[in-house]
Design goal:
Strand content: 15-25%
Structural class: alpha/beta
Number of helices: 9
Radius of gyration: 16 Å
Bound molecules: BIS(adenosine)-5'-pentaphosphate
Largest sheet: 5 strands, parallel
């Protein structure tokens, strides 16, 4: 099964995709995660990537599309995948359609996590991420058992550099302009399912699982 999780920053795409990937035994492909790794490399490309991300704007389509194309050609995607963070605009959606057509496969389900702005801001400003395994926590909503340490692997938790107030605002603006037209794009192709995602994580997960059955 090939699933896209769509939604604004903080909608819970990463949180849900991780659990869903385990339950369905499919790879979780997060372009944000891949770019964060690239941005740590001591190269010009790494520096450029970090710059785009810290400003809260999208990295160029050609760059991320090339990265994604390589990733979905790996053998572990044979039975499907869960896409989190791609596509991010209509150009990327068309590029993805082209890649999948060449492979004679298609997206089965696009799940739009519909989240309100106050919830987005509360979630992003309190998010903590594990520096080793990438697990997500939240200071209030999903606090780690032990202060600033990952429950799963013991890694140190950190706040993402793009989770500062000003960058959150910018990311929301970019989402509304660039990414929200994807809702209509997939609706017109009868792939889109909407889920109210302001609710607790377990409730949202159950709704996604129902759709993926
Ligand atoms: P990316 O990493 O994809 O960030 P994003 O889309 O802004 O989404 P987030 O990761 O912020 O939020 P999320 O929906 O995954 O929420 P999460 O589960 O973490 O991209 C970062 C940057 O990379 C972009 O700005 C861009 O520069 C670049 N980029 C990435 N892909 C690109 C592309 N295709 N093209 C160009 N550029 C690209 O949850 C958030 C918090 O809320 C967590 O603390 C979590 O614990 C908590 N939480 C989650 N769900 C719930 C719930 N139901 N109840 C209570 N708390 C919850």
């Amino acid at each position: 099964m090939r699933i896209i999780l769509l939604g604004p920053p903080g909608a819970g795409k990463g949180t849900q995709a991780k659990t869903l990937a385990e339950k369905l035994n499919l790879p979780h492909i997060s372009t944000g995660e891949m770019l964060r790794q690239m941005s740590q490399e001591d190269t010009q490309l790494g520096e450029h990537t970090k710059d785009f991300m810290n400003k809260g704007v999208l990295v160029p389509d050609e760059l991320i599309t090339q990265v994604l194309s390589r990733r979905i050609s790996q053998p572990d995607t044979k039975n499907g995948f869960i896409l989190d963070g791609y596509p991010r605009n209509l150009n990327q959606a068309q590029a993805l359609d082209g890649m999948l057509k060449e492979k004679k496969i298609a997206i089965d389900l696009v799940i739009y996590l519909d989240t309100s702005e106050p919830v987005i801001i509360q979630r992003l400003s309190g998010r903590l991420v594990c520096s080793l395994c990438g697990a997500n926590f939240h200071i209030k909503n999903m606090p780690p058992k032990s202060n600033m340490t990952c429950d799963n692997c013991g890694g140190k938790l950190y706040q993402r550099s793009d989770d500062k107030d000003e960058t959150i605002r910018k990311r929301l603006e970019v989402y509304l302009r660039e990414s929200s037209p994807l809702i209509q794009y997939y609706d017109e192709r009868q792939k889109l399912y909407r889920i109210k995602a302001d609710e607790a994580s377990a409730i949202v997960l159950n709704k996604i699982i129902e759709l993926a059955k």
